[in-house]
Amino acid sequence: MRPHVELIQEDDYVWHAAELPTGEGRASERRLSVDEEDGSSSLRVDFHTDWGRSPGIHHANTEYYVLDGEIDYGGRRIGKGGYVYAPKGVPTDYLRIAEGTRLLHYREYGDAGFDPIDSVASAKRWDDAREDVIVIDSEAMPWDAVPNPGPMPGLFIKYLHVDPTTGFYTRLVHAQEGWADHRLAHHPCYEEAYTTEGHMEYNFGTLDLGTYFFRPARVKHGHFTTMEGGATWLLRSDGELANWYTQNEWVMWGGEGVNYGPEGLDDSPHPALRWAHSTHAMAQPWRTDEDMRQLQASWQFQKDQDRFDAPVTHHGSGTDPAAVAIAKAMDAYNLQGGHDGHGHSHDHDHDHDHDHEHEHEHEHSHEREVINLDFGWFGRSTEHADERTDDQAHSWGAGRPWKAGDPIPAPILSSLPVRSRSRGRWDGDGM
Q1: What angle do CA 227, 171, 155 make, to 5 degrees?
Q2: What is the pLDDT of residues 154-190, one digit of tens each?
Q3: What's the pTM value of the predicted model, to 2 decimals?
Q4: Which of 113, 159, 110 has its CA nearest to residue 136?
Q5: How far apart are CA 37 and CA 29, in angstroms?
Q6: Nearest Cα to 193, choosing from 158, 222, 236?
Q7: In Å, what is the CA distance from 254 to each residue of 10, 112, 251, 352, 357?
């Protein structure tokens, strides 16, 4: 599967010679994301000369979307917004692309392989080939309101391709200025998007022209606010997209630094120094007043629809929910026996440096009770049993078919985005 890419501006990628076998002409590509296991790729391609390729058969489900310029598929010319879907193993007609054209190019479930044929009429489909070639002028399509219940009004969609068997779909999505969604979501399928116009802010950063993400299944994301002019993306998912929401998330982790600390490197014998980090502490209150107004409006919409929802809070402000959870855990621990398992809690500070051996623990550790602290659902307990035995059991982020009534797996926590070389900005606060 592809690695998580969140969030990157395409100008931060280097150019490569475009991998378009048997074609004539010059083109360069930016590799937005690549699956090195099967060759699946999402690419931004620029054509430096007129380019052409004769009829043939693609080794992958292949898509072309015109950002600027013109393509000619089998005699049908399409400009900006033109879209061609060529299924794997299906004979396709010639393709010509004009000099200066900029497009998005996707390959799914296969590599860049391409077998030339004499003609579409005489060529045989692969035995396992499905679907037919699709050619669309998306500029001529109307925008439809998103049919899924839940989001506030102001979100619109154009479906370019939907696989009737797998649910894989490619669509254009537009959020009008002022549209917001305060909820944090994860999905059973991967989700990727390239911003074709506009400006949106969310917890992973700024979505503006040329920004891209590829998010494996179950990676949590959210807090969207659409800024001036609205925002539009070409968005793809490898299955039917269900929205599972989380609010007021928390996590805290830590460790013991054995040769470093606030004073720098220290290789002399000394007790390990404990450190801790919270997602709450990572987040800076970077939301503007307008962002918060939009998020509050999104929450009010859910409330008006009689849907349960948690009030919006500015991430990184107020009480750290991780600290509250830890305090509750300590209360439960002490009430159920503390260190000695006999109802006698100890008052010593757990934040000390642990520079002694805790010999008293080892003397009677066999007497301690097993304390069951209930923090709610654990991620593994919400997985479907088949997930633990299928060929993707090694990967939590692998998408799997899901239907209403199936268990809903917990989200996967993600890391902070990287700094943008081209924009000189850190995008978002991660959680």
Answers
A1: 35
A2: 999 999 999 999 999 999 999 999 999 988 899 999 9
A3: 0.87
A4: 159
A5: 20
A6: 236
A7: 34, 44, 10, 14, 20
Looking at the predicted structure, is the pLDDT value of residue 108 above 50?
A: yes
* Sign of the Cα pseudo-torsion (75, 79, 83, 85, in order): positive
Residue owning tokens 């003609």 = 119
State the number of CA atoms in the 13 A half-sphere of 427 facing the CB: 24
How far apart are the C-alpha atoms of 183 and 65, rounded to whole Å?
30
The structural domains of the chain, ordered by start, are: 5-140 (2.60.120.10)
Q: Tokens 């010319």 belong to which residue?
A: 77
Q: What is the pLDDT of residue 189?
A: 96
CB 156 within 8 A of CB 144: yes
Pairing type for strands 273-278 and 51-53 reads unpaired
Euclidean distance between the first and the last CA atom of the chain, given in angstroms as a whole number: 23
189, amino acid identity: C
Sign for the pseudo-dihedral over CA of 317, 323, 328, 331: negative
Which 3-state string (H, E, C) describes the chain?
A: CCCCEEEEEHHHCCCEECCCCCCECCEEEEEEEECCCCCCEEEEEEECCCEEECCEEECCEEEEEEEECCEEECCEEECCCEEEEECCCCEECCEEECCCCEEEEEEECCCCCEEECCCCCCCCCCCCCCCCCEEEEHHHCCCEECCCCCCCCCEEEEEEEECCCCCCEEEEEEECCCCEEEEEEECCCCEEEEEEEEEEEECCEEEECCEEEEECCCECEEEEEEEEEEEEEEEEECCCCCCEEECCCCCEEEEEECCEECCEECCCCCCCEEEEEEHHHHCCCCCCHHHHHHHHHHHHHHHHCCCCCCCCCCCCCCCCHHHHHHHHHHHHHHHCCCCCCCCCCCCCCCCCCCCCCCHHHHHHHHHCCCCCCCCCCCHHHHCCHHHHCCCCCCCCCCCCCCCCCCCCCCCECCCCCCECCCCCCECCCCC
Cβ-Cβ contacts under 8 Å for 12 (sequence gap 6 or more): 420, 421, 422
Q: Please give the single-letter amino acid code of residue 51.
A: W
Rounded CA Rg of the chain: 26
